[in-house]
Every structure is written in C-alpha cells, then in structure tokens.
Write a structure and sequence with these properties.
heterodimer; A: mainly alpha; MetI-like fold; about 75% helix; globular; B: alpha/beta; D-Maltodextrin-Binding Protein, domain 2; 2 domains; nine-stranded mixed sheet; two-stranded parallel ribbon; 14 helices; about 40% helix; about 15% strand
Chain lengths: ~270, ~350
Amino acid sequence: MTSAPFSLRFGRFCYLAFNVGVVVFLLAPIAIVFVFALNPTPYIQFPPVGVSMRWFEKFFASRDFMNALWFSLEVAVLTTVAATLFGASAALALARGRLPGSRAITAIMLSPLMLPAILTGLALFQTYVLLDVGRPTWGLVLGHTIVSIPYVVRTTLAVLHNFDTRLEEAAQNLGAGALRTYFEVTLPLTKPGVMAGAVFAFIVSFDQFPISLFLVSPGHETLPITLFNYLKFDLDGTIGAASVVSIVLAVLVVVGLDRTVGLRSYAEL
Amino acid sequence: MTIIRKPVNRRQFLAVAATAGAGIIAAPHVARAQAATLRITGWGGKWGQTMSAELIPAFEKEFKCKVETDTAFPFLPKLQASSRSNPVYDVLHTNSNEQWAALEMGIVEAKIDPKQVPNIADVYPYAVSDKIVGVTIFTSAIGLGMRTDKGYGKVTSWKDLWDKAYDGVRGGYVIPVNSLGQAFVMMSGMLYGKGMTDLDAAYAALEKVKPMKLADFTGTMEKMILSGEVGLAVIHDSGILRYDGQNQPTAFVAPSEGVMALEQVLTLTPGTKVRELANAYVNYMLSPGVQKTLAESVWYSPANSKVKLDDKYNDKLLTTPAKVATLIQPDWKWYNAHKDEIDSRVNRIFRA
C-alpha cells in the first residue's frame, strides 16, 4: 500500500486545522462563560482562582432572575407553538397553494429578518399604545412570533421543495381525504423542517432582546432584559451563571427533540 | 409496577393547550383591572431590591394603590412613543441628563409644585436649581476611584488622571452613552480651559489623557477597578463606597477642584392621570425615612438636608452644606444641545 502524496496529506492537515480552529472559535466564548460562572471572584479573572457555585446559588436564589427565567420559558413555548403553526401552514400554502404572487408573499414572510428587530419592537410598542392595550404578554409573544416565523417558513419550504408530491397523490388515489393526507403523509414527511423551525423559534424567542426591550412590562421581564438591567449595576458571576443555565436549557431542547423526532432528520435538511 | 400510558389524542391536546395559553395570556388584563396604578421608572441592582422589597410595598399600603416599576431601559423612547395624554409613566426617574432631553421632547414637566410636595422645602438648593428639571432626590459625587495597593502616589486633583504613571491603567467611559463620561468632558473643559463649555480645551485634554480603558456602564468600571485592570478611573463615590467593609484595596478620591454631581431626578409627565398620587410618590421619596433607607442601602447622598445618617455614611456622603458646596452641577441643557457634535469628535479621539 502506498501512502498519499505529501501535498494531499498537507492539504488534509490544513483542512483539519481549519475545522479545529472554527470549532475552537465557536466554543471559546462558551468556555469563558463557564469559567466566569465558576470563578469565585466578583469579576472576570484569568487564570481563575478556584471553583465556586456561589454565582449559581445567587442566580437560583434571586426572585427576579427566577421569575425572568420562567417567564422567558413561558414566552418561548407560546412563541414556538404560534410560529410553528403559522409558519408551517404558510410554507405549505406558499409551496402548494399556487397563490398569485407567491414569490412576493415569500419575501414578505421573510422580511422580519431584514428589518432591525429593535425597529420592529418600537413599531409594535407604538401600535399597542395606540390601541391602548398596554404591554400584554400576548403582545410580547406576538412580537417574538413575528421574528420567529421566517425561520419556520424557511426550513419548512426547504423540505417541501424536495418533497415528492406523488406520495400525496398516491394517498388520495387510495381514498384518503385532504386532511388525512396532510396528517398522515405530508406532515410526517415535512416534520424535519417543521421541527428544525420550531427549535429556531424557541431559541430566537428565548434569547430575544431588541423586541423585548420595548414590549416587556413591569414585573414581566424576560431573562435577557433582566440580565441587561443587572449588568448595568452589577457585573459579577451571576451573569455567567445565568448564561450557563441558558446554554444548558438550549442543549436540553435539542436533546429533547433528539429523543422525540431524532436529530438525524435535521442533518438531512 | 405497571405503567399505563393513556394516549392523548390531538383534539384533547389542542383543547388543553388552548385553554392554558388563553389563561396565561389573559393574566395581565386581570391585573390591569385594578384601580389607582402609579407607573414609574426605576433602577435595578441594590436600588431595585430595596425599593421592591421594602419601600414600594409601604407606599402601596399607605396610599392604597398599585405601583408598576419599569426597570427595563430605555425609558425615554418608550415615553416618547406613548401618547402625551396617556403616557406609559406617571413619574420618570432618570439621571439629570436624560431629564433635560425629556424636557426638550416635551414629555416631562419642567418643575414640581412645592405646594404639592412639601418635602421639597427641606432639600438642598442644588436639588431644585436651574440646572435641574423636576427635583433631585439623591446625588452621587463623580470623582476618582483608585487602587490603594499598587504603590501609586497620592491623588488629590483631577489632573492626576493625566499623569503618565497611569498609562495602561487609566479608566473612563464610552462618552456618547455614559453620563459620567459626558461629565468628564465638561470637567476637562473646566480644568484646561475657560469652563465646562470650553470644548476645544476639553478635546485637547482628552487627546492627552489617552490611553484610557473605556467602559459602557459604571458597574463594569467598578469591576475593572476591583480586578486591578484599572488603577485610577473616573467613577461615582457609591461605585467605590458600596464595597466598604469588604476589605477591598480601593478608595474614592474627591478631587480638590470639586466633584461632579450625578443626580437621581424625578419628574412628572404632563398627561399623568394620577397626578395626586404622583406628587405623593415624589414627596415619599424625599421623606427622611425613605432617604435614609436608600442612602444607606446604595451609598447615595440624600437631597433632603434634614436626613440624619449613621456615622459610617455621614462621614463619607455629602450630608452637610459644606460638603454639598463641593458639588459641581453639569449644564446638561447645554451639553445635550451639543451632544451630536461632541459624540462625533470624542469618537474620533478615542478611535485613533
């Protein structure tokens, strides 16, 4: 057996080094957050002087942080449900509905991604003020849903684009009605795209800052807003602990989806 | 043990989800149905904790009302976006620079009627001077914070900040977004020019004070001093004094030229529908008991001259007419009028 030529081995090495560099670049900030959260000093210090859970204790003992965490989860779940239902339905209509101007409608559906979210937040705030509804939770969920829908539409459209419509036709030829065909053929086959969009929607909502900045109401603040207000006055490891909790929650969502629908289906997208 | 899994069909699931969702979404409306709600702004951190745990509940009990405190910045854009006749806040609490900006927009009232707020009679003159919109309830002193364990020389003057010994460990703020940084611009004009409005002198001084480590927030600067990343920095006294008793090698220096005032100011919004309650709140915040509680909680100097603090606080805060006389009040009306020009110039100075 002859070994690969030097240029090929060198190329592979460079490729591997580049990939390792990208992974390190992506994960280094997370590692720093963990170090900050576990370091006992009330400021960022390298090298760390020890390991302490004091910032986690402070985070979990704080009524403000806990309320914000649960409220963020509540809003993220509602946003995920709303964005998934609306986004997946819209994608289906756009792909199959033979709608006049479907390209323009698709562009409009994706437009919240083009606008600075802070302007969307301000515009919604002004709308609610004009309607005299205050800053209700449903208003915040609506704001998060608007910026989450494009992700669901995009991922669902990606699946529908490669979808073999003959499967639906076969089901209908065998006597299935439109609804039955949808639930038993279309939905299972588009599930990877829909679920990927749902994951994006959850994360976009849970981390949402610019929209929430204008739409949170007193006593109902999301975690990113609470963290921002906190770090204006206290920059200590509690911020790191809160970040770690957020990362763990995001990982749990992914793991949960893996257990329910399987991560492999996302990889196929 | 046998686990029986009872399948939930789609219709049942949707019914439960819809009911739960509607309940969650409707909750704020139930809360809003209560009468006499005072909507205010406020700080987070220790201030927010003291207010929400102790002072706001006492006010609500005394005046049989509900207080909604918005601690989520930014306050001015929200107030500006809301109707003048139905503002999102009844009382605006911000630093003085933002109050002047709010007055310019017409979203707060210039002064508070002393007849409606009797405690105004007891405040130091600076709290209701022509440099103030509304009324000051507390002030901090902007001076210099330093490390005491690095062998630096004795610091007595603002000009010590320009000493080459502090190159690499000098701390300041991102001027366009931080009022301490903006106060420092005015102080630079005073130190090296004809006064706080001498911008040419200020710009020349800022060129010479580089290199300077810049922070967005005062909380960040506190940590930079605590970690030793910064040895001498512009900071307000409470940012150093709040670590009193924690054996930190830090000290606050009130420079001989005077300290700049960092005022906590309350104003009323023109369209408030609970004016009586809003005035009562301002009066409450100026009452000696509340002033003492907050001053000793967050190390802010009380504006009410009748307040008696414990010795530990009395020694270090601005609690006598002589100490109050060292306060220099920035001219925020002038500064705001020149802010765009100043922002543009200082960005160029510190970018280079």
